[in-house]
Amino acid sequence: MLSLRFMDNTIQMVDLVGQYQHIKQEVNEAIQDILDKGQYINGPIVKEFTQNLTHHLNVGHSIPCGNGTDAIQIALMALELQPGDEVITTPFTFVATAEVIALLRLVPVFVDIHPETFNLDVSKIEEAITERTKCIIPVHLFGQCCDMEPIMDIAKRYHIFVIEDNAQALGADYYFGDGQKKKGGTIGHIGTTSFYPSKNLGCYGDGGAIFTHDDELADKMRHIINHGSKTKYHYHYIGVNSRLDSIQAAILNIKLKYLDHYNQQRIQAADYYDVLLKDIPEIQIPNRSAFSDHIFHQYTLIAENRDELQQYLKKNRIPTGIYYPIPLHQHEPYQKYVRKMDLVAAENGSKTVISLPIHTELTKDSQSIIVSHIKSFYSK
What we know:
The protein is an alpha/beta fold and 380 residues long.
């Protein structure tokens, strides 16, 4: 077994400081320029970043906002859904997705996940549709897209909106059956993302964005994020205060240039994990869908004796994450929305998943050490 003389945080789940060191001069100069000019809200850099992001994703419109949770809420507000309308989504995701549905007095309807990809099981969506169903929110979990082509077919057939929660897969391509490809988050009626610091494209605080090809929806969402105002002190919609500030936009504008490179570094790290882990029978390495890139926001395994493995790795100073230890439908505020539907895959996933460190600064030596400890645990 490989040995290493550990110091605190030698192996980290995410290494934001290490990543910053490579772009330190660019970031510092960009922040200083904003401080010198005093243009903190809706400054020129916000417009520049918005244009660059729109071009990068080849989408009609990008609307930056305060965070990824706001992005989903604003998208739902723009669709003018009514209290009691139903929104189909996954129980195996961060709470924000269902949280904003309930906050707007809509009804989250949980559909089970595919047991290997952890994304919505497309084959189970139609049975959840009722006359009150108005929207589907697929979550592109861990770095790869849901199967969007059949989801969009279902949505068209039933006249349902689709909002893509793309907080974990920004930059991933989805491949259609006819060979066409589009970026995740640009396929549904609206897409959303988060720029939380640990994301593949992350700022140094909170931030988010919304995407659409629909001119009317874009215009509406631009005003919703600014208190519903089209012109100062004239309010045309019920809105919120959710603007991306200039400092975060400047940081994101720099990091956007490196996003493809960052994603490729994550893919390379995942490839090496695959090689190191493939002969451990107690481990199932991440599934990679034929219809989507996997850009590995998380490198998530299915592991036997997951909890014991996590404790063993913790004792050996190997950080891990469990995303997510309890599916949303089992949390108290969301139990009232549960229907007589099979959510077994989500429940099993919460008991077996474990995510290993993965980030742009991860070295092969660190990965070898991590996997050596995993092998040691299962050889006991």
